[in-house]
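Me: Here is a favour to ask of a fellow structure person. Could you put it straight underneath, so I can go through it closely?

Assistant:
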Amino acid sequence: LRHSSVSAFLTHCGWNSTLESICAGVPMICWPCFFEQRLNCKDIVDVWKVGIRLDDRGRDGTRGDKFPARVEEVVCGMIRGELGLRTREKIWELRDGCRKA
């Protein structure tokens, strides 16, 4: 995660993965599967604002063939979009705060 070519981390939002991403200063693309991962995802996306949620449903609520387009939308948004820029700034602030602690 600490390599300069890493723009984002696709994570299931397990606690260890979340901490590793924060310590490395890498924004997260969140794809939670079960249990506490959904709660961690909510904190990552809505509270700390250091990630983007990757839903397996399209904006219209459908599943299946629209998922690849959603993956592309989220990844491109994280790498080139305004939300990605704000997310990177927030994760760097959080990383620096953790280092000071």
Q: What stands out?
A: The first strand starts at residue 9 and ends at 11. The chain has a mean pLDDT of 90.
